[in-house]
Amino acid sequence: MPTPLGHALTGAIIHTIIRKKKQRCQGWICLLFCIIFSNLPDIDFITLTNFQLFQEWTGSGFSLPWIRLSWENHHGPTHSFGFVILVMLVVGVVARIFRKSWKQWGIISGSCVLFHILMDLLITKKGLILFYPLSTHRIILATGFPFGYSPEMGFVGFVIMSAVEEMVILGGILIALTWTRAATKKVSGEREGVSGE
Q1: Exposed / middle / buried, residue 9 (Cβ in 10 Å: 0-12, 13-18, 19+)
Q2: Helix/strand/coil for 188
């Protein structure tokens, strides 16, 4: 199970890859955009309930008035290619309204959501309904990569282990990409300085 940290690191990696001088996706706003959309499919943890006037703990989640956090609906329609297309269309329309590059923002948002789904596909043992709404058949590709869940470690231990793995693997990729980009800029800056002389 990739944690929100893992999905956020994936968003940061996507931001680092797409960030170029000629593109409009630079800075903290674009980074935050990538992180939010990399975590967006997990919005299915939130369920609107009948308007309860009290808080209660239940066996499947924590209930608040009007909102319930629960595992019951997790890995549902928001973890499908149909959701990727929907997000791309909505973001594209909103970007067009604000006179931004609708293709660019649609592709960035779609990429962030798609990588979230692919990461979950590698871990989720019950599978994902990838082709929703065309099909509700669950595709199972759970490799347990890099480590799978075992009941002995407990859920909290598993989440902590997953977060550490994600920091090492995805954090390492992010550092390598950032370092490579900085080294490339330095070399191109030196070349421009030499040619300017």
Answers
A1: buried
A2: helix
pTM for this predicted structure:
0.75
Region of residue 80 (left: phi > 0; alpha: psi -120 to 50; beta: else):
beta
Q: Tokens for 25, please give them.
A: 């996706």
Q: Tokens in use for 183?
A: 């080294």
Please write the tens of the pLDDT for every residue from 158-176. 778 888 888 998 899 999 9
Spatial neighbors of 9 by CB under 8 A, at least 6 apart, are: 166, 167, 170, 171, 174
Q: Can the peptide bond before residue 77 be classed as cis, meaning omega within 30 degrees of 0? A: no
Over residues 85-135, the pLDDT tens digits come to 999 999 999 998 988 788 889 999 999 999 999 888 887 778 888 898 888
DSSP letter string, 82-129: HHHHHHHHHHHHHHHHTTS-HHHHHHHHHHHHHHHHHHHHHH-TT-B-
